[in-house]
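Suppose a colleague, Dr. K., hands you the sequence of a protein chain of 461 amino acids and asks what its three-dimensional shape might be. Before reaching for any lab equipment, you can write down a predicted structure in token form. Begin with the sequence itself:
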Amino acid sequence: MINKKPDNLFKWGKQPLLKILKYAGLGIGAALFIAVVAFLLFPDHFVNILLKDRVTKAFKKAYPADSIKLGDMHYNIWENRLGCDSITLKTTGYKCSVVSFSVKGINWIKIFLRNEFTTNTLNGSVIDAHKIKLNFLKFQKELRFEMLHISVPDSEMTADSIKYFSLINDEHFFAESKFRQTRYNFDIPQMKMMGLNCLGLLQGNIYSAKSIHIIGLFADILVNMDKPYDLNSPNPQMPNEFLSSMKEKVKIDDLKIINGRLKYCERFVIKETPGEVSFTKANVSVSRISNQSDNPAITIIKGEGLFLNSGTMKLFMEIPLMSKKFSLRYSGSVSMMDVNKINSFIEAGEHRRIKSGVLQSAKFNINVASGHASGSLGVEYKDLSIAVLNKKTRSEKGIFDRIASLYGKIFIIRGSNLPDKNGNMKIGNTQYSRRSDDYFFQFIWFALRNGVADVVGFSPI
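The predicted structure, expressed as tokens, is then:
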């Protein structure tokens, strides 16, 4: 007898197994198709469920003392762009908020499959952010960007409306310390970096760019000279000292400031008008900024601007940034101007007032070696008259007239300095050594002022 295999060997219940697998495959395929269609039509729903919570938990695990809050997230599959309506990040040192943020060009599938994210993942990325606020809690200062655009493929970064300022007024700022402080406020309508090493910038170890253009910069600097300098604080660093102390690699081929403004003020008495020096319509170019010892470069600075809204000043400067000693060379000129404009600075700081005078022209050439400045200053002027002011009242008149007259209440030390028939005139000699509390631009000004004093015939107070 021959035993026959039962006909229902490959049956599951009443249905053949192959047919069941066929239907199951169709069901799974349909489900996947529906899921893909749903993701294409409603990607935001999936992103907020799958990604948002995952990012928040991962951040909390890595930084338990800090906090992050994400707004609604969005994903555009056609542009491969992931966005977020808002981001708020708070640490012990700062608080950062972003109104909108988006990034495109990242292989998200690779990140999910390998569960890793490195800076190399950003090779093809483009980042856009709007209304960024970075609050430095300890220092009560804030940095703002209206717009920030970073394109890694294009090696480019653009930022609009950059503002850096103190969150408290000047009186409160200076009252927080018993020593001298410097308050900086900056306003930059637009900045653009080209040839930028974006990945190095994001990693924080390389600051390299072919060119940087800063348009419309306004720098507002105020020093409270009414308080003593803290002798225990580190001395202000000169450019060579600052760059050589940086661990990060710095290499910038060309930096330009276009139509900039500078207001530098020194306050000598609380709530009184400080001494002020200003430059407007300033155009500055800086080339070859680097801290690489294997390829030391001399940084060249060329600048031109309107000094005290009166005369045009031109400046040329050479700084060996990798020099161990503070050294440089600078020269320049000032065109015809009304010297009374200088009263905005010297009345408060020098206790002198220029009564009259016209500057025809000025040229200077100063060399700095190991922190000592020496050089020459040629100044053509006429009809110069200067008055000594009372330090308390800042007046030329009053009960202190007799005391002031001992030094010359109103005096003309060298009223005019014009070339004689042989073309000769008094040339000022500059001799100035760096003080421990001198900042870079203070040193430049004090060395120049020393030459002016030698021409006019008085010593700076």
